[in-house]
């Protein structure tokens, strides 16, 4: 189930990527992706290029992917520690199998968070 779902999401994210984002397998393992977020024009992150690591669990989509920033970043929704943990509910207790990696999922939410840096937002 996980493999087919991830393959389907890969096609979808390549066809219609979320704003400022791109993502795909980091190598041969489709369960491990590398993502890039480009700092939006007019934001505090303008001109920045931010890399993320995405790991899908074997029981995806029943459980959310693990998404963390590889690039150090200061943002109210990103843990300032070494691990780059992203603090948004949909990557924890608000995840549902109806969400996808891009449509309503972590990348669309992150792109919105990049535009809303004034407050800690649980979008």
From TrEMBL:
<protein>
    <recommendedName>
        <fullName>UBC core domain-containing protein</fullName>
    </recommendedName>
</protein>
<keyword id="KW-0833">Ubl conjugation pathway</keyword>
<dbReference type="InterPro" id="IPR016135">
    <property type="entry name" value="UBQ-conjugating_enzyme/RWD"/>
</dbReference>
<dbReference type="InterPro" id="IPR050113">
    <property type="entry name" value="Ub_conjugating_enzyme"/>
</dbReference>
<dbReference type="InterPro" id="IPR000608">
    <property type="entry name" value="UBC"/>
</dbReference>
<feature type="domain" description="UBC core">
    <location>
        <begin position="1"/>
        <end position="123"/>
    </location>
</feature>
<dbReference type="Pfam" id="PF00179">
    <property type="entry name" value="UQ_con"/>
</dbReference>
